[in-house]
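Field log, afternoon session.

UNIT: design team B
ACTIVITY: writing a sequence onto a fixed backbone
BACKBONE:
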C-alpha cells in the first residue's frame, strides 16, 4: 500500500494537498491455473482538507494500461463485456475489457481488466485508442475512466474507493472465461 498525495500548485507558488489516495496492489496466482495470475488494485481516496474536490469530466482517469510496444493494429484485439471490439469500444461502458494478442516466440496472451460494481459510474466508460492511433500504428491503450462522461464530487470526511482486478494470462482467454473471472471478482471483493 502506498500513499499518493495529489497536490494543487497554486498561482502564487504555494502548494496544497487536495486528495490523499491509498493505493493497494496485491498480486497472486489463481491456484489451479498455471497460465494466469491476478492483480488486485484498490484506490481509497479522501479529501485532504475541509474543502470538497471536484474531479471534472475528462477522457482519461481511473485505471489505464498502455500495452507492450510489440502490439499494434495487426496483432492485437479487444473485447468488452458488452461484445464490443476495438473498432467500436471507445466511448462505451463495460464491466470488463479483454486485451490480447500475439507475443514474441509464437505465444499469445493478454489481460482482462475488471471493474467492480461499487465503482463510481459503473459500468465504467472506456477510453480506448483505436487502430488509427499513434500515426496509424495502432498502439494499444485501454482505460476505465469513471469521469470520462461526468464530474465526480468528493466530499470531505468520506472515503471513496475504486476497485479493479487484472487477470494476466498466457495462451487464449474468451468471453466466457472473462465473465467468470468478473463474477469471481465481485464475490471475492466486497
Amino acid at each position: 500500500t502506498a500513499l499518493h498525495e495529489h497536490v494543487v500548485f497554486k498561482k502564487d507558488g504555494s502548494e496544497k494537498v487536495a486528495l490523499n489516495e491509498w493505493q493497494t496492489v496485491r498480486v497472486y496466482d489463481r491456484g489451479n491455473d498455471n497460465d494466469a495470475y491476478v492483480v488486485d488494485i484498490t484506490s481509497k481516496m479522501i479529501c485532504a482538507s475541509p474543502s470538497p474536490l471536484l474531479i471534472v469530466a475528462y477522457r482519461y482517469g481511473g485505471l489505464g494500461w498502455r500495452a507492450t510496444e510489440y502490439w499494434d493494429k495487426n496483432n492485437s484485439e479487444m473485447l468488452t463485456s458488452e461484445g464490443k471490439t476495438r473498432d467500436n469500444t471507445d466511448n462505451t461502458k463495460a464491466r470488463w475489457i479483454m486485451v490480447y494478442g500475439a507475443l514474441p516466440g509464437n505465444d499469445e496472451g493478454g489481460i482482462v481488466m475488471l471493474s467492480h460494481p461499487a465503482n463510481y459510474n459503473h459500468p465504467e466508460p472506456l477510453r480506448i485508442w483505436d487502430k488509427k492511433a499513434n500515426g496509424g500504428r495502432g498502439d494499444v491503450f485501454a482505460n476505465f475512466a469513471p469521469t470520462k462522461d461526468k464530474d465526480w464530487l468528493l466530499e470531505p470526511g468520506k472515503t471513496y474507493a475504486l476497485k479493479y482486478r487484472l487477470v494476466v494470462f498466457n495462451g487464449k482467454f474468451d468471453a466466457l472465461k472473462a465473465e467468470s473471472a468478473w463474477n469471481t471478482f465481485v464475490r471475492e471483493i466486497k
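LOG NOTE: DSSP finds one helix and 13 strands in the chain.
NEXT ACTIVITY: expression trials, pending approval
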